[in-house]
Amino acid sequence: MEFNGINFDTYFKKYPSKEGFFGKYGGAYISPELQVAMKEISDAYQTICKSSKFIADLRKIRREFQGRPTPISHLERLSNKIGTGVQLYVKREDLNHTGAHKLNHCMGEALLAKYMGKKKVIAETGAGQHGVALATAAAYFGLECDIYMGSVDIKKQAPNVERMKILGANVVEVTHGLATLKEAVDAAFAAYAREYKDAIYCIGSVLGPHPFPMMVRDFQSVVGIEAREQFVSMTGELPDAVVACVGGGSNAMGMFSGFLNDPVDIYGVEPLGRGAKLGDHAASLTYGEEGIMHGFNSIMLKDENGEPAPVYSVASGLDYPSSGPEHAFLRDLGRVKYDVINDEETIDAFYTLARLEGIIPAIESSHAVAYGMKLAKTMDKGSVLICLSGRGDKDMDYVIENYPIPEKI
What are the catalytic residues? Predict the structure, then answer.
């Protein structure tokens, strides 16, 4: 399929470029010292990812440890409640081991670290799911693990903090700035610059300097590949629309990868938070402009000085002032439409999915569910496939404390 001059039959062979660019987005804007480290990772990945042993090891891990493939569930009661005849489905990444999609790339990155002879993995986390997944991978492979996390998120995501510690990770609290995801990334990068000879940085999304946007997308593409095959098997046709939440954008790129070359509408859902005022949301692709941060060029939210702006989202995993460079590229192409969902709509979807379908979603995933519900109300017929990127165990205390359980749905 060709879209705005891009042939999606060969898309994954051409993007990113050798230098890590998706059009004008991406690249590696880092110090000379880190350039050496990133080249080592890139060279190792480009070699190892073609190795039959690496591929066989990763497939075995996914099958015997992660519990893949994860299923697709038809949301029949929710579809009936909406009442337009449009049918909603979810790809159940909440049933992936550790409760979210994050383990898909963490096991791949840790396996790469093991092949490279590294002794430690370093990462940042917001919602804690990436931290838990990497701590799990480190335990599986016998690696040391340092996880950097903002103090605000440590309070919001206490269950995941305890999980990381139980798994043997060293959770490093980050207290400067807004003490959320951006600051955690800053701290993790600084630590990696000091320790890169013995450690590998395992970034938590499709962002950062090349080769991470490519690597994480490749490891996450299993979500979209499975989902496409499963949906066709279930229904005999492709979905009319595919929806996923977007912060950095790893679950979305994984899901979208399976459908970019199909006549399917694709929607990325950003967090509008409390509203459109700068500082009240984290919808970078909707309200941002081109800019460089954390070693890559993409679309970002900027303050009056051109620096990364303060951001907010009810979902700790989405409160980042930029998004992956491939998302910026797909936005400019028009292949993926990026839209927003606010906190109120998100929490309503959280409780609605739980009450009607027996699935408690992560707050991040609830953005996608809310948008899928809203989209279905505008359609006369068809189907919507939503990436349910994670489960809501980690969010229970926070949601109940701040958003009382409704009597009726």
Answer: 102, 124, 389
